[in-house]
Description:
alpha+beta; Butyryl-CoA Dehydrogenase, subunit A, domain 2; Butyryl-CoA Dehydrogenase, subunit A, domain 3
Amino acid sequence: MPQDMPAEDLYRFEELLSPAESEVLGRLRDFLSAEVAPHADTWWGRAAFPHHLIPRYAELGIAGLPYPECGGEPASSMLNGFIALEMARVDASMATFYGVHSGLAMGSIARCGSPEQRSRWLPAMGRMEQIGAFALTEPQGGSDVAAGLRTTARREGDTWVLNGAKRWIGNATFADLVVVWARDEETDQVLGFVVEGGNEGFAATRIENKIALRTVENADIVLTDCRVPERDRLQLAEGFRDTAAVLRRTRSGVAWEAIGVMLGAYRIALDHTLERRQFGGPVARFQLVQDLLVRMLGNATSCLGMVTRLAQLEDAGTFRDEHSALAKAYCTTRMRETVGWGRELLAGNGIVLDYSIGRFVADAEALYSYEGTREINTLIVGRAVTGIGAFV
């Protein structure tokens, strides 16, 4: 087993990466260990985002890995997945920040932008000189947003006028570029727009009092006669199916993040049970404790097998909605179960932030809900296997 490979990767999935990919992941692991892990609980407790680390993340050169416009050959889906896993293993908030920027925002431009738009925005975003956000969810529209999108776009010559509201938009309080999805008043089609920071018709207000992903700056957005030039409309976005294509890929990223959360909680629980002494020895020697540890590791390992195959399907071009939907629904459900066992193994200490496990338990609730609830993803898979849509 490579020296820096986590012992919790029992089946050695990481060995599927190439040596060059392993080097990238190793640099990320070292960075997270030195710069994020010691402070993650403090940032979470204070609901403070570490803006000073963005240039350090940029130095790692990972944000642009999926995109040829950022230079070089695009990274494999396996490496992109392991990056998401590794971030979430330390801090799900930072994994979410990264996923919004590199996955949702950059992914929307890569999928739906013209060649000129991709070359205009993606290289700077890949260097993290410009940070992105993705605005789809609305105050009154979550799971039904495909049919119920209320934000509107009206064309006036070479300008589009956007009106509406968005909610739960990660990074939006400080993003330089926000991908906003709106419904064309004339055609009723869902279109994508890149709204630049400082637009006078755009207002983002940070959501306070969260109990999960507290380090992430989620925002309520209000668009009031927000004027966007036609050149900033994503030229290849012609309907919600294009939005869904972006979500298909980022949904698989959430499954990888869920495994990272499981493995992070498992490591905390394992270390604690080896150090905690009761009845004359470490509590790890008790059968019921070992049972929960093995259940935790089993959940994470089985899910890692699922997303490994998912990554292979992505790179083979045979990746479909039901593939990412099943992985997201299943892995986040197992995550919720797994972090609960971890908290149980820490007993009373499990509810104290100083021991970190409580952060993993709380953050798991957000991952369980975002990028499509379990119920919606279940219906996507159900439609694929039965041929019958059961959506309302």
